[in-house]
Fold these 2 entries.
Entry 1:
Amino acid sequence: MDPSEVEFISEKESISIVPNFSLDKIYLIGGDVGPFNPGLQLDVPLWIAVNLKQRQKCRIIAPDWMDVEILEEKKQEEQESKFFTKMPCDYYMEITQLLLQHAPDNIPKADEIRMLVKDIWDLRIAKLRSSIDIFVKSDVTHAMLNYLTLMELNTVRPFLTKALDHIQQLRNNVSYGAALWSSQD
Amino acid sequence: MATVDDIPFDENGSEEEGEAMTAAEVLGKLEEAWLNEKFAPELLENKSDIVECMMSQIQEMEENIQRAKKGDFKVSLHRMEIDRIRYILSSYLRIRLKKIEKFTSHLLQTEATLEDPCLSAEELHFAKQYQSLLESHMTNMALKHMPPNLQKLDPKLTSK
């Protein structure tokens, strides 16, 4: 799966905005949105929020978890735990990316947040890599991983499944010997 | 995230309650079908009722947009949503076509024996056409020039 498709999926998440225009309720296929009143906060899907922001028609309210203190705690927790910890949002990376790209002026302490999310991401990816390393080197047939987000899974999915496939093939060949090797193709 | 395990749950839902579902639910089902299809190595059952329902929704919405005033602010949001749904739809159908091209003869063989067909009518038509084109291409380009005992395409012996 392409990272842009993961981002596409994450754009369905809802987020609070404060519009600066007024508009009646709109009836989208995926559900109703609105009504919009200037200065009144409401929840909309992320893709609408980003679009409105691009047209300078709203102010995006950062989600609750997008806060330096909470993220620092999260980072600490992630560092101390051997396993993956639950993330405050399943699409934390994508949403941070989108909001910081399109609405950096609406996010308090945007730079610190960017750093923290990147740190958490790096920690988790390093953890994921080392656990995959252990997994592949040991002879177990399955492993359990909790709380991984879609984007994180996606960074390893294509490579890991292919690699395991190859390992399996190589193992088969070793155990069945050269005779199988020639007949397999 | 939707997984292959989720499929049995919505089997009844999509057929019996098809009429009673709201557009948003259908959209959810379509997204689920899209992701399942994307990650499954084989062709899954067809969801043509969902696809058709969504197509008619889009068409209806487009007619509404036509009627709306030009430059209306709402229109751009509606149009954006249509584009998003259309992307999911075409991505879903395209993944299926890719799989059909990959497993043409296997699918056509098993299709006859299955009780509920995996392919929709259009997909079946596509598969048959693709198969015959492929066969005639193979025959014209290579098999004709082979010794007579090797001139047959046996689906059991070929990988396609």
Note: Chain B has one domain: 4-150.
Entry 2:
Amino acid sequence: MLEINNLHVKLEEEDKQILKGVNLKLEPGTVHAIMGPNGSGKSTLSYVLSGKGGYQVTDGSATLDGNDLLDLEPEERAAAGLFLAFQYPTEIPGVGNMTFLRTAVNSQRKLRGQDEMSAGDFLKLVRSTAKDLKIDADMLKRPVNVGFSGGEKKRNEILQMAMLEPKMCILDETDSGLDVDAMKLVAKGVNALRDGKRSFLVITHYQRLLDHIKPDVVHIMAAGRIIKTGGPDLALEVENNGYADILAEVA
Amino acid sequence: MGTPQTKSDPNTARLSGLSLPKGAGWASAARKSALERVITMGLPGRRDEYWKYTDPKGLNGPVAAEAAIIDSTDAPGFSADSLKIVFVDGVFNAEASDDLTLAGIEIDRLEDVTASDIHWARDVYGVLEQAGQDPVARPLAALNTAVASDGVVIRATGKAAKPVSILYMRKSETADVVLHHVIKVENGAELTVLEDGSAAARLNMVIEVDVADGGAFHHIRTQGREHERQAVTHIFGRLGQESLFKSFTLTINGALTRNEAVLEFTGDNATAHVAGAAVGDGKFHHDDTVFITHDAENCESRQVYKKVLRNGARGVFQGKILVKAGAQKTDGYQISKALLLDDDSQFLAKPELEIYADDVICSHGSTTGAIDEDALFYLRSRGVELAKAQDLLVLAFLADAIDEIDDDGICEELLTRLQAWLERRQD
């Protein structure tokens, strides 16, 4: 599925190296979690994989099912099956959520050489998906993320993920800013998409999200590298002892 | 205007030699007096403060520049049921037009009206234009009054049964057209006028709108999508007590456009909203110049203008709210915004407030910015292609101005039309 080799990334405008040789391999159907202290490069990794500007890859590679991701435009990466659930979903005044969803679904289908989804099929799908995530008709009508609460924004991300049916989902601190109930709702939405083939990369600071989205593998990232990889227990260790022990152990 | 002083102008001789259209005594007098005004004021030049940001050369010269017709397959028109009046190269075309009878309104041709000795239009034709010459001269409007021979004259006496749409077709690539419409909305009457089409290689258009007490006038126009045409338009509005005036203009392309709106509140508790959305690519200069005079109490005026510019396109906004002494409880609002899609494009804004009353609320704002990169990335990360994502953000930006139109159906239609235009912008 997703394979990252020796990925080195610096800021485009500054001489600042953020990722210093990241290696990661996700098999189909698996859930990997990345934890790590602030500034370790977790969010940068998610942005670089999805194609945000402002970064420069200086070395290494990232492929999705063997296709070079770094060579593709952001929309082509999306059409190839990559999805990033943003830590801070962008507000887009003037663009209705429904219009946005339909445009996204049909743009991806077009890029993949498929026919557009009919308006009727789209409506049916969006209504049933939204219902599961407790997204009401009003939220679908409003401009994208404008005036949404933190929880609503994150649910809206999961709605997009469910509608777009990506192969590889990256969740960037999807738990941040959520209360326990909202987190459970989001986790339920994610779990509903686990079908044995789709893979997830869950970036989080806290173990609590991993109680609800159970990872197969946990990575610890620090200073632009993955410094330790283990099973779900590793997340518990971090929760109990912080990162200090692990950082000391590696150093 | 102060002391009339004839400006030395290379065009003066040409103006003095103009032969004016024939008409009844009052019409001839109105035209003659308008021509004298133009000669006194002189045609606009770059040295005029009011034309600082827009070069009037293309609008002033003796001959119109040729303008290719690119869109012969797209007949102008709106889907809403309306009474259609068609002009071809600036000439009324009876065959293409509907029968000019409609419950609640009277419609005549300017040509017929100016030939009649007695007609209500004599109290409006050239009168609102002349009133609008103070305190700022608008010579091209006076020139229009002097030489215009065609246009429509509409009087609403009740609620018009349906909108009147004036559609402009082009057959000639060189037509130099002057049109003058006169509209009177009587006490308590209601009228919607829709306009569509590029009209001519060069167009000089004046619309005078007299809205009596309690009358309501709605105006929505689009100026076609042709690249080379040039146009100067003036809307002069006089607003009676508790009247409503709303005007919206959509402009796509056009080498040169100057749209002036000159409104005056003469009765209390009236409302005027003017708005515009303009999209230009490359050789495009678009100027919205608005002058609203509050000379009555408790009136509300609102100006909302948005422009999207790329490839060196230039946008201008000059908007003024003048609140005269005694025009208490005035509520004046003005906003102009430009979205620049590249570094070559330019937006020049000159917002002005001049207030002589002490109990008023007036505000103005103007912004110029680039497309929101975060929003663009967000859309692309969901699989929306770059061009499409830009289009979505452009439409979203313009939506505020288009939302100023009360009729949801027309809003939707204009948005759909804009979207199609954006998709075919390479044409």
Note: Residues 76 and 166 of chain A are 12 Å apart (CA to CA).
